[in-house]
């Protein structure tokens, strides 16, 4: 026990004593803030002070590299679609009905899909992360072996967000990757796409009302070529009627076929589709066997939120289960 306590104290001491202000990447960060975002000398000094205080948390890099979307099969990952999340989705849709209706009217995004995002990300705003965003983005930005460029950009956007919102960068808390609020927006998306949906003068994604509108805005405006299509579904179940060609694309990033081409390849949808419908094939490895889905344009719009097939399928199936419960007759 003494050895364990000593080890923990050593780890804490190493993390607490980290001083990122002297890191070789800091001059470029500060130059970006000054040249591209107009930081004054006083604001640059505040950034340096925050970097002195930032803690190095190397376990976050491992957590990002071994995210469940990358390491689990579908049987494991799909356990997130549980009864509590389904009921939570029903509850929030009923409690915030006016905001979901407004988001659907303005952006065309289905309320159950917005709820599905919030359910998978944060259990409807209940679990938004308890790691300082400063620490997660500094660690990922300065120490990640392969994604330094991305996280350094997000660290810069985080400092801009804090300056513009009048927030001490040592205060906000989020995920191991620096995502914030009930919608889990990264800082760049927070700055570009967050909305003040409750009209209180603040774009606060820790409130579910602002998160609802901001998710809908994200799906519409994040990537114009993959913008949400009003009234279209995400995916439908399918099955294979004979062994599939090895070169048939599975789990891609966009629609790659027409419905007719998939049917010719051996994939039959559970409901008939117009032959020229653009689709993609989703193959889910289970503990035993394989499950197939046919994905539409909006499925890949969800993948712009998180580019992992399992993530988009979890949102898809959770939203379907929520809708089923909403449509079920009362007991």
TrEMBL record:
Keyword vocabulary terms for this entry: Signal
Organism superkingdom: Bacteria
GO molecular function, one term: peptidoglycan lytic transglycosylase activity
Pfam family, one: SLT_2
GO biological process: peptidoglycan catabolic process
Signal peptide: 1-18
InterPro entries: Lysozyme-like_dom_sf, MltB-like, SLT_2
Domain Transglycosylase SLT stretches: 29-319
Keyword Ribosomal protein among UniProt keywords: no
Signal keyword on record: yes
Entry-linked PANTHER family: MEMBRANE-BOUND LYTIC MUREIN TRANSGLYCOSYLASE B
The protein's name: Lytic murein transglycosylase B
Organism encoding this protein: Stenotrophobium rhamnosiphilum
